[in-house]
């Protein structure tokens, strides 16, 4: 069984070391200070979730589990289609080796619309947080499976220092227990097992019950239909991170609008 996270961490640490050597912290911080003002990511999700669903719509060209997902790939046009379809926020994959992402995709997507944007990448070092802000990101991802508690705290503090939001991603109870020691309200429950690539919404069904009330659940991965969203809403998820199912559509704006139509109003289980 491949441990994709271990593989990604190995090349990412080498990549970060090279980037830091080319652009020292003081310089990347100067770029971050000059970046476009932060758009409130968590606030946008909170607003959308009050009236319906919050949608973090992902710009994802390829993935380790699925290979190439979308050949006709224009990040700016996709961002505009997502905005037109009613998405709340963007998620943009910037990792190249595993996702065929690029930093320029984040810049182009965010510049093309008014939505707040998550830099979807693998972060280990506060330097990467400053770099994310320099690229315009409004939110960063902390994957609890890939960092120590001390690293998670350091990354979260760096994001807060830049007035950015943080999506804390968990896959199991142990990671959730560690995640709630952090301060950020957004807890992403990822339905994809990153060791086997198996996707099951049972992960959200199980873990959602253990998420404290002062945190907001973001249900991630493996969501395809309005019925999936309604099902997950019954477990307390009002915000969703969706990539593949929207990336495979010809008309992304219309598919986004259809997915968001008729949010569930039913009681939680
Ligand atoms: O998508 C993968 O194959 C993957 C593999 C290893 C690490 C992360 C991976 N995906 C990142 C994500 O979290 C998803 O892109 C995101 O939740 C959207 O999922 P989906 O709607 O299933 O594309």
Automatic annotation (TrEMBL):
CDD domains: IGPS. Keywords: Amino-acid biosynthesis, Aromatic amino acid biosynthesis, Decarboxylase, Lyase, Tryptophan biosynthesis. It holds the Pfam family IGPS. InterPro entries: Aldolase_TIM, Indole-3-glycerol_P_synth, Indole-3-glycerol_P_synth_dom, Indole-3-GlycerolPSynthase_CS, RibuloseP-bd_barrel. GO terms for molecular function: indole-3-glycerol-phosphate synthase activity; phosphoribosylanthranilate isomerase activity. Residues 5-259 form the Indole-3-glycerol phosphate synthase domain. Pathway: Amino-acid biosynthesis; L-tryptophan biosynthesis; L-tryptophan from chorismate: step 4/5. It is an enzyme of class 4 (lyase). It comes from the Bacteria. It catalyses: 1-(2-carboxyphenylamino)-1-deoxy-D-ribulose 5-phosphate + H(+) = (1S,2R)-1-C-(indol-3-yl)glycerol 3-phosphate + CO2 + H2O. Its EC number is 4.1.1.48. One of its GO terms (biological process) is L-tryptophan biosynthetic process. PANTHER family: INDOLE-3-GLYCEROL-PHOSPHATE SYNTHASE, TRYPTOPHAN BIOSYNTHESIS PROTEIN. Belongs to the TrpC family. NCBIfam families: PRK00278.1-2, PRK00278.1-6, PRK00278.2-4. HAMAP family: IGPS_B. This is Indole-3-glycerol phosphate synthase.
